[in-house]
Amino acid sequence: xxxxxxxxxxxxxxxxxxxxxxxxxxxxxxSGQRKDKDGKTIPRKIINKFACEFNGKPVxxxxxxxxxxxxxxxxxxxxxxxSGTFKFTWTDEDGTVTTAxxxxxVS
Amino acid sequence: xxxxxxxxxxxxxLNKQLTMAMVGVMIIREEFSMRQLSRRDALALGxxxxxxxxxxxxxxxxxxxxxxxxxxxxxxGGKTATDGKIxxxxxxxxxxxxxxxxxxxxxxxxxxxxxxxxxxxxAEGNPNPGVATFHFSPMxxxxxxxxxxxxxxxxxxxxxxxxxxxxxxxxxKLVKVTIGGCGx
Lengths: 107, 184
What we know:
The structure holds two protein chains of two kinds.
Chain A: E1 6-8, E2 12-13, E3 17-24, E4 47-54, E5 57-64, E6 73-80, E7 84-92, E8 97-106
Parallel strand pairs in A: 2-8
Antiparallel strand pairs in A: 1-3, 3-6, 4-5, 4-7, 7-8
Chain B: H1 2-12, H2 16-32, H3 39-76, E1 82-83, E2 86-89, E3 93-96, E4 100-106, E5 116-123, E6 130-136, E7 144-149, E8 155-163, E9 168-179
Parallel strand pairs in B: 1-9, 3-9
Antiparallel strand pairs in B: 2-4, 4-7, 5-6, 5-8, 8-9
Helix pairs in contact in B: 1-2, 2-3
């Protein structure tokens, strides 16, 4: 995948804090419903899975359908008890995987 | 002619509108088969054609709603979902159906032994009603997620939440869409 996913989450937090995480991936999310100017259906190409893990444990995940708008944006929360790394994974229906990581220091 | 319609309707369990339209077309076909169409006849044919198309559209709309219901039934395993606890945030009017902000949240604890594990979102009026399934864990802390979705037309958005204890809650919201977002 060409562009890096955009992530927004705090770099630091206190133990037990609930933090907000926002993620954005540049992706066309072609629904398979559109037709090009010759009338041919533009083939479907979508991200169908998004997952967020913290220190290897699942936090949040989404099964996406073509109804998710282009450049899929996901916002959710996580409770942090220790320092560690969030890992985000986007999986395209064709198998392509995009990942990103962000660390957080929890005191 | 009405008797014919009634027989078709009761024997074959067809949609009443469709039955009437079918009989209408049969009548017209009988009248027109052997002679040239006058302008009035052509107009009548056109109107019945249009009526059939409209009924076709109506069928498609109810097909999408049925598929949405099927997806929900699959999610709940046939169990009934209680109304409430879910709130769906969507604009009253979506100016651009290509990107409509959506938030779903469930007013429920997220304890290790009792948390919202999934929320299913379906759009009754989209060609593919499935929108997303959100998966949560106790670490999510809040059973809440936001994203942006595509809506083809004015319709009901339905959300169903599942808890780790196997309970189901549901809610829905009507969104008016001015420009549809499915490329149609």
